[in-house]
Amino acid sequence: MAPALDERVRVGILGCGNVGTALVQLIHDNADVLQERAGVRIEVAKVVVRDLGRDRGLPLPAATFTTDAAAVVHDPDVDIVVEVMGGIEPARTLIADALAAGKPVVTANKELVATHGREVFEAAQRAGVDILFEASVGGGIPLIRPLRESLAGDRIKRVTGIVNGTTNYILTKMTDEGASFADALREAQRLGFAEADPTADVEGFDAAAKVAIIASIAFGAQVVASDVYREGITGITASDIESAADLGYVVKLLAVAEESDGQVAVRVHPAMVPERHPLAAVRDSFNAVFIEGEAVGELMLYGRGAGGGPTASAVLGDLVDAAKNVAEGRKGATIGTLVARPIRAVDDIESQYYLELEVADQPGVLAAIATKFGEHRVSIRSMQQRDVGDEARLIFVTHTARESDLRATVAALGNVDEVHRVGSVLRVVGED
Amino acid sequence: MAPALDERVRVGILGCGNVGTALVQLIHDNADVLQERAGVRIEVAKVVVRDLGRDRGLPLPAATFTTDAAAVVHDPDVDIVVEVMGGIEPARTLIADALAAGKPVVTANKELVATHGREVFEAAQRAGVDILFEASVGGGIPLIRPLRESLAGDRIKRVTGIVNGTTNYILTKMTDEGASFADALREAQRLGFAEADPTADVEGFDAAAKVAIIASIAFGAQVVASDVYREGITGITASDIESAADLGYVVKLLAVAEESDGQVAVRVHPAMVPERHPLAAVRDSFNAVFIEGEAVGELMLYGRGAGGGPTASAVLGDLVDAAKNVAEGRKGATIGTLVARPIRAVDDIESQYYLELEVADQPGVLAAIATKFGEHRVSIRSMQQRDVGDEARLIFVTHTARESDLRATVAALGNVDEVHRVGSVLRVVGED
């Protein structure tokens, strides 16, 4: 088919922060490669900024910059809209308008896709144009495309991700240096890996939005951020990390999406991962997504989950795709309708668990404790005892148990006289 | 666009070994998902087998099976050809005929793509139909698609892969159990991970073919298997692995493709990888490909590099793509012309090196040795001495040096009287 647009495709970029700036620079630096790969010249027609006065040192004429996002979306000289401003509004309205005007949209907006994904996908489907959002999860890691295309013939059973770089950096510091959570957080803030208000990262909100997107694409299900069960890492202590290491585990904040019996389960929580599991080797601010597929078996995709360069690289991969389709007058790749599926209650989820109990160091205690486990159908896989003064610390790892049974066990243990304290309770994930 | 073919696409599968069998089963089991994702029903029209008498237990009528591959390729009832027979001929002719007849081709044939890739890609380009070969490298790992599409806007600097499961299994056994190469190979053969004649794996031929394909796609360059510098793992000893561990390294067989100054360098050799490098955590028969891109930074794609299920999953991802394009009457995704590029001579490659010397345990030896390093512009990064009887073993790790300089150093050291033996020389890869 002949290119429909005189061999160039004009892009309007909404937002010019880290990602927008890196994107403009990348399009400029790699113009020749891009033209070859897209089969068409990619031209930055407009860039929406907040402050026209600021010099960004970008290789674009001053007239390219504007503060009027709505005008860019409706500009007949803009063929594709790239949204890298973030946040729900005005991004949501701008994207809806672009799609309604028949313009493909590339977005890096995690929050929007995790909250209004279905609406956005349906608008793209009606318009028959691309909606591409590789950069919304895992920064530069190719994830959405492998899930949508490479694994199109497979059935995905479970996706387990380290999708938040800040918390992985903090947990890596705690593991390598025995640092406390507070100290590691301060160090992350000092280095710019964590925000002044770290809530979105350390309480798992960021990871929850990402796993909602992953579940939507992996299972074709309508999953939004608020469906995700969520525990953060603020309660993780240096002692938990040390105990984990003693048992051959590493503590990670995991985002898990799985499908079984027609139900989807989505959750974010810290967990102990066996040292030899590939996710255990994901250090510092790196991200990785571990995929279990029926035919393909185990896959892991690893890389930089944030940052201007990696995110812009992912946006540009999408943009090349969209530009090709525009140039050749082809329909875009749309997501099928996301189906509403029951979300499994956290009580019904099954996992192995690590439990730490402080108990009186006297005969008969273990029998009393083991009885409580047994009464609630939680089977013990291993137990270790450490003496701490005239108390003993018991460390249990269970076989796979239901969350509700585990919680009932913990409650029951709290009522055993000889149990002075139920310490950390952590899930164990990735054990054979 | 309306589906051109009454909402079904008919596939002819050439070959029915592990991969072909798994593919047919997968298409049958996932028919509903496939129809939804491809927007069209994927129907297995013909399967070419060697022996019509054998019952494969596949859910297909007997008339689907045939021994006449040429007839399948030319059959007007076959829209897409999937080649999973392997080997150069007759696969090469059959694929050429299919493309000439305007039929998209999906192939898992590493040998063919690594040897005649350019010819195959050009035939696909002329025909304007898909040539897809995700399964030819890294089994089920999405690799070709990320390189072609996700990273289309980035510049890839280097790709470092563990792309042979057999040798990775052997090296993992040697590392975990202190086994000798011979014992680990026998164990791999017993478990079916290694062939009776293991040459293609242990001498690096298999990895060389794969890295040729990786270099072709990553750099758009014409690279064939015979361009690849190649060293196998038969010379790796239990003692090398132990020394590596002492220094914080793991020994892996690496396939490296890099581009600089307009030259492409491609090589396969064992190397020491730092324990904390993500490639070090790739164990047993798993594969992984570590990609360094200009904007994206570091990426790693990990999974099963072989086996019927994983390979069939990759083939099916490609098949869904091709089926979509056929159904919508769209042109296929072709590879641009591969450009002939100079291949860098191994002498010109730069690396860090590990060297083990057995020397007389007497004063002045180190000075004599250090002089030889200096004379050949090889700078020493670290040295460790171990006493072994009345000899000493010196272990050096160099800073980055040219291969030719390192070789000259080794030759010169062989002529130093106090050097009784130059032991293992191994590259060190992935150090900061």
- Report the biggest beta sheet of chain A as strand number plus sense, adding barrel if it closes: 11 strands, mixed
CATH-defined fold name of the largest domain in chain A: Dihydrodipicolinate Reductase, domain 2
Computed Rg of chain A? 24 Å
CATH class division of the largest domain in chain A:
Alpha Beta
Count of the separate structural domains of chain A = 3
**Roughly what is the average pLDDT of chain A, rounded to an integer?**
94
Q: Give the overall form of chain A.
A: elongated
Specify which chain pair forms the largest interface: A-B, 60 and 60 residues
Number of strands of chain A: 17
- What is the distance, rounded to the nearest whole angstrom, between the alpha carbons of the first and last residues of chain A? 52 Å
CATH architecture of the largest domain in chain A: 2-Layer Sandwich
Oligomeric state of shown chains: homodimer
CATH superfamily of the largest domain in chain A: Dihydrodipicolinate Reductase, domain 2
Structural class of chain A: alpha/beta
Contiguous helical run count of chain A: 14
Helix fraction of chain A? 25-40%
Flag low-confidence runs of chain A. Answer: 1-5
Strand content of chain A: 25-35%
